[in-house]
Amino acid sequence: MDPVALACAVVSVTILLYGVPVVRDRLRAWLPAAPVDPYRAAAGRWLTEDDIQAAAARLLLDGRVTINHRGNLALTATGADVARTAGHPLPDALLAALRRRTAATTLGIIASRDPAFRAARAEFHGGPGASRARRAAAARGCLAATEVLLLTGELAFVIAALFDRLPQGPAQWAATAATGLASLAQLGFLARHGGRPGAAGHRVAACEPYVPPAPHPALVELSEKAPEAAARLRAGRLRTTRRRNRGRRRRRGRGTAAARMD
Predict the structure, then answer these.
(1) How far apart are CA 184 and CA 85, in angstroms?
(2) Helix %, strand %, coil % of the chain (to 5)
(3) Percentage of the chain with pLDDT > 70?
(4) Which of these, 87, 105, 91, 89, lies nearest to 53 by C-alpha position?
(5) Distance CA 58, CA 103 (A)
(6) Beta strand pairing call for 72-75 and 196-197
(7) DSSP run (H or E) holding 39
(8) In the chain, which ranges are E strands?
(9) Which whole number is the average pLDDT over 175-189?
(10) How far apart are CA 201 and CA 44, in angstroms?
């Protein structure tokens, strides 16, 4: 293959490889990012900081439920009014679960033993917004795999073309050198292809530990305004069984003895 034509093609591909991410980052900086629902963002956090916990915190802040020292949630007069809603599908589902019960209960029992609430939560996370996000992520993954395969095939072709014949003259030697440098640059791009842009704009390796999103605003607000209620809510989330009410025990045989005295 002609070294000059090969150099023109390889250098052009290298410029595209390094130029497209720059243009993409500029467009992301100029165009506003699509808003992410904070409840969907909190779904992947720890148990006492997830979306269910955030929904309960929102109901507590709005005065629709109360929580006692055992972590049991109970409806207030505002929360018991079926004409009022929480304004979001997930807190509304939790409010509906509390309205279906005749006694106060913990958030852990609702999250683990209420099929209607679990179905409503699954429907919320499987809605149009989540489906679009999953399709976009799958498309990005397929596109990235295609880019890697095409780049690998192009590098194999270039290496075979470089050793096809010796260059003749200064122009071909210069073109061969440019092709080699461009191929090395493509190898460098391929090596860091799995990275992702960090918070400061530098590249971060994909093998670094996952950093969860920030806590839900309702959880942060509840911890600041009512830290005791936040602690009770965390304790109630870890309780998935109902405890027996341990009052004063009645002595065995006391009623029989009293009857005999009568």
Answers:
(1) 61
(2) 65, 5, 30
(3) 74
(4) 91
(5) 20
(6) unpaired
(7) helix 38-41
(8) 65-67, 72-75, 105-106, 196-197, 203-204
(9) 78
(10) 24
Task: Kindly provide the b/e burial profile for residues 216-233, where b requires at least 16 CB atoms within 10 angstroms of the residue's own CB.
Answer: bebbeebbeebeebbebb
Cα–Cα distance measured from residue 42 to residue 13, given in angstroms and rounded to the nearest whole number: 41
CA-based nearest residue to 56, from 189, 201, 193, 218: 218
37-86 pLDDT, tens digit each: 899 888 878 889 999 999 999 999 999 999 999 999 999 999 999 999 99
- The DSSP code for 81 is -
Total residue length of the chain: 262
DSSP conformation class of 49: G
Give mean pLDDT, residues 198-205: 41
| Residues 67, 180: Cα–Cα separation, whole Å | 69
| 17 pLDDT more than 80 | no
**pTM exceeds 0.70, yes or no:** no
Give the Cα separation of 241 and 251 in Å (integer). 27
Tokens of 149: 């395969």
Assign 209 to helix, strand or coil.
coil
> What mean pLDDT is reported for the chain?
78
Residue 70: its pLDDT value, please?
92
Q: Which of 71, 3, 50 is nearest to 242 (CA)?
A: 71
d(CA 149, CA 143): 10
